[in-house]
Structure formats: structure tokens, C-alpha cells
Design a protein that fits this description.
The chain is mostly helical and 498 residues long. 73% of the residues lie in helices and 0% in strands. The chain has one domain (6-396): Up-down Bundle (Sodium/glucose cotransporter), CATH 1.20.1730. It has 18 helices and no strands.
């Protein structure tokens, strides 16, 4: 039975139509690959900052962030502090190495430092990881809409995936950035509205909520550095920084936005702006979990009562049961806003990596009519859209909640990739053979740990050796140590120039 009123459907449908409209308007500006993938390298720092933030704030963030705090407390949310480590490091030491006028992707740097095979490996790992990440980002809002409207999961996955693929394929990076800005405003406003409504129904309001979560230890953080513990101070300050660096410094989704800025200084400025944007946004998102915890402590836990099946459904459940007609439509649109911005950013980046790193580089043909190349890029974007929708149906079978599942995938693939970039940027004697050996070793170690802890390699599930938060750091360290040890003393490989 549908929980949506006609007003909810009107608001929700209007938002989706507006997103596609932005894509159609942006399509007229894409006359070359530079326009299509990098928005003509002319975006200002504020737009780039908002786009980076929106791209990393998916429906996973919207649903899973509050859900994780609701179930486990605020401990994981302290990971926002690690941005104060990862952002300066990326801005001052890594971004200048990326910002080259001839670069379209992050992985062109690795060919110049090591070899073509290194570039292709890194780009391939990025494509693999982001395809899985986008599948989760597609599944998250479909889960929310299923709970709110009763529409089947398959229908909502196909609807959101198809619309996002349409405007991304048509408009390219300009469509991605402008819809990112629109969607960031919608999702932030939607979350703020939920908090205001919930606080109004908690005895004592904001003060009552705070007293409840403090009394119940929901704000506590272990001061341990034990990697086996789910979240502690060590995980937040050390492992968290590496987790952020994977997405900020090695991910084509982010690097492509840096390259769309008008200059290196504009690009660096966008990262500083994003750092200050991310604080209130993250505090609001994770703080919503505390508000919902205090609300349902008074009104009865729907998870314990069996009214919802997973904690990831707690936010949409609140929306449909507590908000008046019209607001559910707006807030489900906000969830879709978060996911569509992530999916569009990812699809555009997957297409750029495929066209630039594989198709053009391996064929050796970079010439041809600009319109033909843009048309080809659009069809590749559509192909990835279909792939992501197919993968989204498998995400619901992943173990753990969305926060754990997604960050595990980021660490498994992103940790070794971060190590590969560190070897290229901050060492001189590491060879191509050492870099590749290190990367494969890092991935093999992480995969073995993941399979062991999941119980795939043993009769009974063993105790946890290392938390999912530490995967990125472990993969990076193994990659660097093995890369250094296997490079011998022959010196660095010669730089390659395209």
C-alpha cells in the first residue's frame, strides 16, 4: 500500500524532471572531450567544491550515516576529523602533481612515472571499485522508496538509474556539476527538516535529545588504537585519513573535478572550501542518527518491533510515519538527490577513464571529429549506466550495513591504489616491477583478510583481526613496503611522456 499522497508524487516527479532538464540544457555545451569530461576547464572553485562534496555524499550517506549512528552510536562519525589531515595533504602535496594541462585522468600520471601497464592497472581498479560503489548508491534510494511507497525494488532501481544515465550521457561534466549543486542544496535542506520535526517531538527538544544520548553513552569513543576494535581513536585519526585520501587523491571522480577548475590555485581553493562545507554537512547527517535514537527511545524502536527489516530503513520509516503530506515527497527526493549526484559523477568518470586510459591510449588514435568522440563517450556512459543498474540488484546480499559494506570495498581496492600513487609521487627508486608487485600484494593481503574474517576460509567465523576502517591503511602500507623491497637498487624507471 502506498504511503505517498498525490502531492508527494507531484513534488518527487517534479524534482526528477528538473534534474533531467538540467542535463538537457547542458548538452548543448559539450562540443569536445574537454567540454564533455572537464567542462571546458572553466569551473570556479565554489562550484567545484560543492560538486566534490555532493559526489561523495550519496544516498548511502543519507541513509547509512544516520542508521549507523542510530545502531552503534556516534563513534564512526568522528571520522570527520580526519578530513583535517587528508585535505591539506591532498591540496599541498598531491594536487600539484595532478594538475597538468594534458591530463584528463589521474592515471596518466602513473604512466609518466612508471609505465602504461601501471596506468591501465590503476584505471582498471578504479573502474572496478566505482562500479560496485555506484551499485550501492543506486540500491540505497530504491530501498528507501520501496519502504515509503511499496513500489518494488527492481522498478525503483531501473527508474533512478535510467534517469541519471540519461542526463549524464547528454550533458557530460557540466550537467554533473550543475545538478550536483542543486542536489546538495536539496539533500541538506531535507535532512535539516527531518531534524527540526523530530526534535519537536522529543521531550525537552534539543536539550532532551542531548541528555538522552549522553546518558546512554552514544557519544563515547574508545581511546584505544587496537585495529580489531570496530571504531576507536586510532581508527578515526590514522586509518580515517587514509580512507579519505583514497577518495580525495586517487579517485577519478574527485580528480576529474579538480581538473575542471580554471587553474591550480582555483582547484586548491575548491578543496579548502570543501573542507569547511563538509563539517556542517557531516555533523547534520550523523547527528540525525542521534536525534532518531532519542526520538524512538521515547516512541518505541521500530527495528526491535519488526516494523523495519534493517537499520538502513530507519530514516525513510521516520519520513513516512511522522511527516505530513508533501514532505515525504520532498525528502525522498532529497535521498534521490544525493544518489543521483553520486551516480552521475561516477558514470562520467568511468566513461572518461575508459575513453582516455583504454580506448584512445591503446588504439593510438586520438584524432577524429570532436562530435564523433563526444557521441562515443555518451554511448559508453550509457553502457556503464546499464552495468551499474545490473550490479545494484546484488548489493542487498552484501554482509553488514551499508556503511561497513561500502567502506570495505573502498579499502580493498583503494588502499593498494593509494600506495601505488604514493610510490610514484614520493619515492624515486621504485621501479615499474616494484610498483606492480606491491599493488598486487596489497590487494592479495586485504582480500585474504576479508575472506578470513568473513568465514569463507574457515568452518566457523573467526574473531575480527582488523576493522573495515583500517583496510585502506593496510593496503597502502603493504603496497609501499613490497614495492620498495622488490625494486632493488636500479633506480626509478624513466619518465614517460605522451
Amino acid at each position: 500500500m502506498s504511503h505517498f499522497s498525490w502531492l508527494d508524487y507531484t513534488i518527487f516527479g517534479g524534482y526528477l524532471a528538473a534534474s533531467v532538464g538540467v542535463g538537457l540544457l547542458s548538452a548543448r555545451g559539450s562540443k569536445s572531450l574537454g567540454d564533455y569530461f572537464l567542462a571546458g576547464r572553466g569551473m570556479n572553485s565554489i562550484l567545484v567544491a560543492m560538486s566534490i562534496l555532493a559526489a561523495l555524499f550519496s544516498g548511502i550517506s543519507y541513509l547509512a550515516g544516520p542508521a549507523d549512528v542510530y545502531k552503534n552510536g556516534f563513534a564512526f562519525a568522528y571520522i570527520v576529523l580526519a578530513f583535517f589531515i587528508a585535505t591539506p595533504f591532498t591540496t599541498l602535496w598531491m594536487l600539484p602533481k595532478f594538475y597538468q594541462s594534458r591530463y584528463f585522468t589521474a592515471y596518466q600520471f602513473l604512466e609518466e612515472r612508471f609505465s602504461l601497464s601501471t596506468r591501465l592497472l590503476a584505471s582498471g581498479l578504479f573502474i572496478f571499485r566505482v562500479a560496485l560503489w555506484l551499485a550501492a548508491a543506486t540500491y540505497a534510494p530504491a530501498l528507501a522508496l520501496e519502504k515509503v511507497t511499496g513500489l518494488p525494488l527492481w522498478l525503483t532501481i531501473l527508474a533512478s538509474g535510467t534517469l541519471t544515465t540519461l542526463y549524464t550521457a547528454l550533458g557530460g561534466m557540466r550537467a554533473v556539476i550543475w545538478t550536483d549543486v542543486m542536489q546538495l542544496i536539496v539533500l541538506f535542506g531535507g535532512q535539516f527538516m527531518i531534524v527540526i520535526v523530530a526534535l519537536g517531538k522529543i521531550p525537552g527538544g534539543l536539550g532532551g535529545m542531548w541528555d538522552t544520548v549522553v546518558a546512554d553513552g552514544r557519544m563515547n569513543l574508545s581511546l584505544s588504537f587496537n585495529p580489531a576494535e570496530r571504531v576507536n581513536l586510532g581508527a578515526i585519526l590514522i586509518a580515517g585519513a587514509f580512507l579519505h585520501l583514497v577518495q580525495m587523491a586517487t579517485d577519478q571522480v574527485s580528480v576529474q573535478r579538480y581538473l575542471s577548475a580554471g587553474s591550480l590555485k582555483e582547484s586548491q581553493r575548491s578543496l579548502w572550501i570543501k573542507l569547511w562545507f563538509v563539517l556542517p554537512v557531516l555533523v547534520l547527517f550523523y547527528g540525525t542518527g542521534l536525534v532518531l535514537y532519542a526520538f524512538y527511545k521515547t516512541h518505541g524502536d521500530p527495528l526491535a518491533a519488526g516494523l523495519i527489516q534493517k537499520e538502513d530503513q530507519i530514516l525513510p520509516y521516520f519520513v513516512v510515519t511522522q511527516l505530513p503530506a508533501g514532505l515525504p515527497g520532498l525528502l525522498i527526493a532529497a535521498i534521490y538527490a544525493a544518489s543521483m549526484s553520486t551516480i552521475s559523477a561516477g558514470l562520467n568518470s568511468l566513461a572518461s577513464a575508459t575513453v582516455i586510459d583504454f580506448q584512445q591510449r591503446l588504439s593510438g588514435v586520438a584524432d577524429g571529429a570532436a562530435s564523433t568522440k563526444v557521441s562515443n563517450a555518451r554511448w559508453i556512459t550509457v553502457g556503464y549506466g546499464v552495468l551499474v543498474m545490473a550490479l545494484a540488484f546484488a548489493v542487498s546480499a552484501m554482509p553488514g550495513n551499508l556503511v561497513e559494506s561500502v567502506n570495505t570495498v573502498i579499502g580493498l581496492v583503494g588502499g593498494p591504489l593509494l600506495g601505488l600513487f604514493f610510490l610514484g609521487m614520493f619515492t624515486k627508486r621504485v621501479t615499474t616491477r616494484g610498483a606492480l608487485t606491491g599493488c598486487f600484494s596489497g590487494f592479495a593481503v586485504l582480500l585474504s583478510v576479508f575472506l578470513y574474517q568473513s568465514g569463507w576460509l574457515t568452518a566457523a567465523k573467526p574473531p575480527q583481526m582488523i576493522s573495515f576502517v583500517w583496510f585502506s591503511l593496510l593496503g597502502c602500507l603493504v603496497t609501499m613496503v613490497v614495492g620498495l623491497l622488490t625494486s632493488g637498487r636500479s633506480g626509478s624507471s624513466s619518465a614517460r611522456h605522451q
